Each structure stands twice: as C-alpha cells, then as structure tokens.
Amino acid sequence: MSQIKKSHAELFRQQKIDLDHPGTVLRDFETVLDAFGTEGLRAPGPSHLLPPEVLVELDSRMTRPLRLRMTRPQQASYPHLNGLYLLLRATQLAVPQGASKTSGRLVLDPVLLESWRSLNFTEQYFNLLEAWLLRGSPSLVGDRNRGYRGELAILTKTVWGLIGEKGLQVRNNLRLNNLTAYCMLALMELFGLAHVEHGEPAEGKPWRILAVRRTPFGEAVLETVLPRDQILPWDLGTKKMPRDFGVWQPVFQKYFPEWRNNLRLPETEFRDGVYYFKVTLGFPWRRIAIPARNTLDDLAWAIIKAYRFDGDHLYEFRFRQRDGAYAEVSHPYVDDADFQTDEFSIGDLPLQEGQSMVFLYDFGASWKFNVTLEKIEPPNRQMKKPRVVESHGKPPAEY
Questions:
Q1: Which domains does the chain carry?
Q2: Less Cβ around it within 10 Å: N or C end of the chain?
C-alpha cells in the first residue's frame, strides 16, 4: 500500500461520511437490509442469487433506480444491486439457507447484524470498502468460472484505468468486457469514487451510461489502496484472508479517527455427528456415512473405493464457504495448497443439508463427483470410519 500524498491527506480530513456522502452506498445498503424482514429473501439455486421479482422491487427503492424495461432481468442486469449483494455476502451479513428452487433463501445473521448496527457511518463505510476490494470475488455474484480473492481489485483497476484522468464520454453506451466489470463501476458510484451520468434505458436494454468521471475522493482512495506500481494490493492473490476486518484501519485512522471498531465475524463452529453424503457420478450413486471427526481425505478414499478406482491420482474438494466464495481442499501431496484434505475435518465443512460440493479426482481425466450433504445425525461413538450404506449402478471403468 502506498504512502498517502499530502493533497490526499487534506482531502481525507475534510471528507464527510454519512448515509449520502461520499456516495449513497450506506443508504442503499440499509434499504436492502430492510427488505430482508424477519424471513429473508427468496434466493433459489446453488448460487442463491436474487430472482427478478425481488430485483425490480429493490431497484425501485434505490437512491438512483435504473428502472430497466427488461422482460427477464437477472441480478447482473442491475449492477448496483449486484454490488450491494456482493457486499452482503462478503461481510457475511447475508447467509444462505436451503438450495432448491423452492427452499433457497438468504437470511440475515442476527449476531453479525448486531455487530453492524454497533458501527458508526465511518466504520460501516470502510468495512464495506474492505468487503468489496479485499474479501470479494466474482464467485459471490454467480460467476462460476472466476473466483479468487483479489480478482475484483484487479478488475476495479482495469475499469478505473479505462475511465482515465479526464473522464470518459460515451456516444452510445459504455462497453465493458464482462458483467462483473459493470458491477465494479456501479460500486465506484455507490462509494462516491466515480460520478456516472445515466441515460434513459431503452426497451430490453441494460444500464445506459453516457459519461463517467473520477471524483477527487475516488482518486485519493484508490491510489492509496490500489497503488499503480502493484499488480495486487497487499497479497490478495492468496485464498487465506485475515480473519478480521480493519486491514486498512492503520492507514486511514489518522484522517478518520471515528474508525475505531469493525465487524466481528463469528467463530467457525465444529458440528459433531454422522454426515450422510449422496455421491453421484452420472447415473451411478453411493450414499456414504462418515463421522464428523474424520477428514476429507477419509471421505475421498471412501469415494474412490466405492467406485473401484485405484486411487493413484491427485484429487480435491471444491465448495462454497459461508460468504459464497469457493474454497479448494487439495490432496496432501499438493504442497502449495491453502487447505489439504488430511487436515480438514468433515465437521468443519460449511455445508448445510441439501447443499453440495464437488470432488475432482485425477486432474487429467477430470472425474467430477457431485457430493450432496443429505443429513447430519447425532454422533455414533461405535462408528469410527466412513461406511457405504447404499449403492446404485455399476461404476464406470477408470481407464
């Protein structure tokens, strides 16, 4: 992180932070929080994205609604709502329940909500800024092909460079290379880092952008946290993030003394019991019961043996963490892995009943198993190892 310039320091000292300054991110974020009520919001499917009827209603309540005239809008059609959704997941204020088209919902974590309410405007603003640029990833907004933390910081720098120091005038509409880039631009506007001139959206068309310019506050913030001479700020390319918010607090607190506290994330709880997984590989499937204190390596070998594979290849599990970002837990021989299967207990998995993870065996052949957590039963002290309790279909030949 770069040293703060003298001109930026003076700007920081004069900056007011409240529901509408330097942008409307805090006001619009509160609007989305209020929409959850006591039962949460319907969010079907494994990614738990918001459905069209929720999006249209929420957009109408934004400070600057887009009022799109689209027949089948998706969450990415509303970049500002997409960005606010990303902040909800990256802060872990909103967590998923269920996974099906009927049961999938997003609900607010009451403990984290209490922590959020205890923060002042300055603390809320900078915690959300860290959620976006330090903790966010494209996978949080449903991009299945992208997902490492720090990628949003790179994409933000790319869009920032496209705007340029003189701003950007757009003849018809701004064309960015992917939908997540529009989300980054919307977040710049919400945080008051950029000013966007909106046009009237045409029938069936997305957000219409006529012009974009950087704000002085945006110049100061992004030159501080995303310096030009670094590809990535700090070590964002790693998946192991600091547990707590407040990474940038030592840098900004001199100019924003109101920044004293941060969101307090809950401790990860070990869930004891016997876990029942339905493991499918096309038509053949196996049901495997495994104690919580066994490891993912034990489950890996139970799957390999259940399908009569020889086990001579590397493997990994891939699943969504509490905030929606992907985690990969790799074979013990993968030295540079952030997590290894022989050190990760079944009881530490963040899956809820009905949610799934992927078991990838043999990176060359890419055998991809879907592993669904069906239920968790009370601990059985007589059960020490995984057990195949049901088997259907002949396994394919490995070679």
A1: 6-252 (no CATH), 274-392 (3.10.290.30)
A2: C
